[in-house]
Amino acid sequence: DIVGTPVTEDFTGTVEQAWRWHPRARRVVIVTGTNDWDRKWEARLRAEAIRLPRGLEVVFLAGLPSEELLRRVRELPPDSFIYTPGFFRDGTDRIFEPRETARLIAAAAPAPVYGPFATFLGTGVVGGYMASYETMGRVAAQTVIELLQGTAPSAVNAPAALPTPLQLDWRALQRWDIPDSAVPADAIVQFRVPTLWEAYRNQVLLGLVVMLFQAGLIV
Asked: pLDDT tens per residue, the chain (219 residues)?
């Protein structure tokens, strides 16, 4: 009688997309921590890393003290990129929130950072294939409504899996010279700065009309 919709973050898809954007990269560096949640992520990523394309070295920075981790991150060569789910505890038992660690890593790294959670957008992380928390909320609400209306758990119209679209931070795309033309059309891009035409279309049109009218009067 348990009803749910699974959510699977697409680690392989994110790394493959990142390598397309950074074809000169020779390694992906994976950062994890030391508590139970962190260790489960590390085990999962080690298992999935064997399916990554040949030619891309996989390096794990797991369970390090945060000061040493950030030092190692700062020293990464430019032919690298980072993937991290963040972590809750470092090698000295210091407690963090994953979003905070993503921000620290992105600020220290001389290479682009990718991750699995939409809450990382805005921390300096480029993005990744991530589930939408808004979509999670809508699916959960619809499931609860159906159950409250008397629908049997086995008959609830819940999706088999939650979609994980490519979600990106426009500012990070600009920082790492990823052109708009290289971004898939179905990607969700946040924090994009609108062009003058997009932001002030009506004002621009009004100004053009006034200028043309004045030019006509002069003629």
From this structure: 788 899 988 999 999 999 999 999 999 999 999 999 999 999 999 999 999 988 999 999 999 999 999 999 999 998 999 999 999 999 999 999 999 999 999 999 999 999 999 999 999 999 999 999 999 999 999 999 999 999 998 899 989 899 999 999 999 999 999 999 999 999 999 998 877 776 777 888 888 889 998 999 999
Closest alpha carbon to 89 in 30, 32, 34: 34
* Amino acid code (one letter) for 215: A
What radius of gyration, in Å, describes the C-alpha atoms of the chain?
A: 22
Beta pairing partners, 166 = 129
d(CA 162, CA 149): 23
Residues 71/92, Cβ–Cβ less than 8 Å: no
Which DSSP category does 78 fall into?
S
Residue 203 identity (one-letter amino acid): Q
